[in-house]
Amino acid sequence: xxxxxxECNMGAAGDMLAGALLELHPDPAxxxxxxxxxxxxxxxxxxxxxxxxxxxxxxxRVTVHGGxxxxxxxxxxxxxxxxxxxxxxxxxxxxxxxxxxxxxxxxHAGMRDIQHIxxxxxxxxxxxxxxxxxxxxxxxxxxxxxxxPVSEIHFHEVGTLDAVADVAAVCLLIxxxxxxxxxxxxxxxxxxQVRCAHGILPVPAPATAFILQGAPTYGGQILGELCTPTGAxxxxxxxxxxxxxxxxxxxxxxxxxxxxxxxxxxAVRAMLGxxxxxxxxxxxxxxxxxxxxxxxxxxxxxxxxxxxxLDVFTTxxxxxxxxxxxxxxxxxxxxxxxRLIRLLFAHTTTLGVRETLCARxxxxxxxxxxxxxxxxxxxxxxQGWGVExxxxxxxxxARLARERGIPLEEARREAEASLGFAQKS
Length: 425
Fold this sequence. Notes:
Blueprint: E1 2-7, H1 14-24, H2 28-36, E2 43-52, E3 55-64, E4 73-75, E5 81-83, E6 94-95, E7 108-109, H3 111-119, H4 125-146, E8 153-156, H5 157-177, E9 181-184, E10 187-188, E11 190-191, E12 193-196, E13 199-202, H6 206-211, E14 217-218, E15 224-225, H7 229-238, E16 241-242, E17 248-257, E18 267-275, E19 280-289, H8 294-306, E20 311-318, E21 324-333, H9 337-347, E22 354-360, E23 364-372, E24 375-384, E25 387-392, H10 394-404, H11 408-418
C-alpha cells in the first residue's frame, strides 16, 4: 500500500508541508512551473534550499506582488523574545466589524471571496474541493473561538493570497503523489504565546486547538507557535491515522523547512513508501430513502462513483409507516469522506447520513491485455493473501461478441484459453 507518513516533531505549517511534499515529487521544477501558472494574481512560488541543524531541505517561498508576509516576534512574560514558528500572521483570521472599520488601509476577504478565488484557479476539481474544505475548517474554528458566524470571519488581503497559495500547493501535491493512505506522528504544537490580530494568545492558538481536537498533540520546552491553523487544517483534512511510523519500505524522504531557527531541526519530514498488506480504514456512509425514484437513485449512485467512492450499493428495507425503501451505502476513503457526504446531501433527499469506520482488506490489482483470434481483451488480475485471480473484462467481451456476431461465452472461452485456463467440458 502506497503510504505517506508525515513527521511533525516541530509542528506543521503550509509552507513546510509544501516543501516536504515537493521533495517527494518526481518533477519538482515542472510542478513549480504549474503552480506559477495557476492564476493567483501577483503570486509567485519559489523553492529555496534551506539548511537546518546541518540537514538540507526545501523552503517554499511565496511572494505576492514581490512582497512577503513576515511573522512577528512575541514578547513573553520573562523578558525574552521568541518568534513564533513558520508561517505568517494571516493564519490568525480577523474579525471584521463593518460598523467599526479598520484604519490600517487593508482590504479583507471572507469565505465567499475564498470560494471565488479557488473557483478561478486552474486546478482539478477534487483539488479545488480539498482546498475549500481546508479553508472551511479554519473558518469554522475561528467562528467557534470568537463566537461569531462564519460570515463575519475575514482574511487579510495579502495574507489570503499567501495562504491560498500554500493550501493549493499542498492539496495539489497530495493529489499528484496519490498515496493510498496518509499517516502522521503526534503533532508538536509548541508552547508560550503568539501575537495575532486580537492580541497575545496562548499556544496553541484557540483556532488551532479547535482544529486539532481529537488528534494527538503535545507541548514541550520550545517556546513559540509550531503548528499554525493552516498546517493543522491540512493535517486534519488529509491524515487518516496518527501514531508512530509504520513498518514501511521508504522510497523517498522530503524535508520541508520552516523560516525560524531552533535548537531542534525546524522541519516537517515526509516519507513515501510501501507498507505491507493490512486493513485500511474506510468510511461506510449510509442513508435511508423512501421518496426517490429509481432513476434519481441510480443517478446519485453514478455521481458518487465518479467522485471517487470505492463502492455504492442499495439494500431494500422496510421503513416507518410500512413504507418500502432503500438504504444507500457508499464506501469512501477517509480523505474523500467529506466530499462524498456533501454529494449525498446534494443528490438525494436524505436528511441525515450515518458513518461507520471499517477495516477494509483488499487484493493488489493490475491489468494486462491478451490477444485472441477475435481481438484484444483486457484482463483484470488480483493477488495477495495467498490467492491469485484473473478475469477477462466484460465490456471487451461484449464488444467482440457484437462486432463478430458470436455468443458472449465464445468470446469468453477464447480469452480464457489465451490466459491458459483449462477448457470446461
